[in-house]
Amino acid sequence: QVFADPVSAFSRWSSASTSEFYTMGARRFWPSPEAVRSAWVTHVDVQFMSPEEESEFRKSLEKDVVRCLLVASACCTSFTLVHEVAVVGPTVFGQDSSSEFRDLRYQIFLVQLMLWTVIPALFCTLVALRHFFGLFSRLAWELNAVLIMMYAAVVIVVGQSGHITMIVGEDPDSVWGGGISCELEAWVLMGLSIVITSSVSFIPVRGKLAWMGPALGIATYVLSKLLWDKNAATHTFPLKLFALGIVSAVGWRGAVRLERYNRSRWVDTRRLSQASTTIEAQEKVIEGIEKISKESEMKDEEIVNAKEMTTCLQIVVQALCDIVVIIDAHGRIGKAEAGTSPELFFEQQVEGLFLTELLARGDRARFTESLQQVSDNDTAAYLHVTLYRGTQNCEATLVIARRKSRYLVGVRLERDLSDGPAYYSSQTSTGSRAKTDPDFNVCGYCSRSEPEPTDHGFSTRGTINSTVSWAPAFQEEVAAGMAGMAELLQGFVPITSSPPRQSMLRG
User: What mean pLDDT do residues 384-411 have?
Assistant: First the structure.
């Protein structure tokens, strides 16, 4: 198109955008910026998209970086110290040389000793303090490792005896003897190879930083040939430079591939760790649920047992008590529960009345005291009172128990104090006599006058002991009922304000 119509092709290219320019045939000569960026991200840049993940990965490498850097710096310090003492030292302090400071060889020896031994020993000390004692943990040790490698690459080129001699303007062969120029090139190439290998293979530095050490070493080597070692820049210099570049590129590429593998393994390890943490948390939740389930089952069993016990107690109470009424904290009779008829028992409407209104005056204070005792001690209690039941006066036993803010009062009639047959015969203050009754086989006529409230014919512990005439057919049934009543009352707190009566019922 250019050769056919150059004017129109030029005008079209000048008006086209950058992306259109690369699609019109220029791509065959050089890649577009998008292609370069894509290739860089795909083959070179292996960093994570998330800065948090990249920071965590860098921290995970710090321990290995410090350990490898410690080994490398220790080996370098030891090797250079041996080289200075065994190789350079005899040349400087030989019989035909002067060890005065004015001697150039002695000065170069001191400079080399500082560059090759003292400063690397300081680096090694800092790395050892970080590795063994955890000091200087806030420093970015990956960057420190790169800086140390860059220092080593520069010193390997500049710190050679021949190069220092050339820098000060002297001839190395005349100062150090013949043959040093030949050895100089070998030492430089060997040292750069060691630095390149250590930077890209031994020390686990990320690929975006690992190239700095080899690149600075090669650049310093090129500058040395351009500035002070111009005689060594022969026709073989480009070949040496190309070889160093190939070694650096191949090593760096291998370091990037190894880094990609380490990143994938780190991601897998992190996922496994997160999965393990999640599993442990779920196991704890499951254990908590199982524990709660077991506790719930135990509570259900306790509830079932409590219900069964409540049912049994209700059966016992219904068997031993004639009626159970519910009163509030003030002693007022509440609504009756299903299956009970307080109106029939008391022969009047009792809902809303105070229970003390149905007791003798002398027993009201004792009943109030028993309610207070039950409320304070959270226990059950019983006492014997004179109860007004319609037009009749009866001796009764009250069993009091608390249920939340209400009280359950079980009422058991003991005897009728009005005219008529009694349940048992006893002597009162006015006297009485016993005779046989055809229905109960035991009867007696009590005094027509109401007895004193504190004289009810019961002991303070609720044990009933008084003389009675039993019928043979009724003796076992009454004995069993009285024994059950005595066992029930053993668990309650007795009211001891009433003195015992002289005559007791004996069973």
Answer: 84
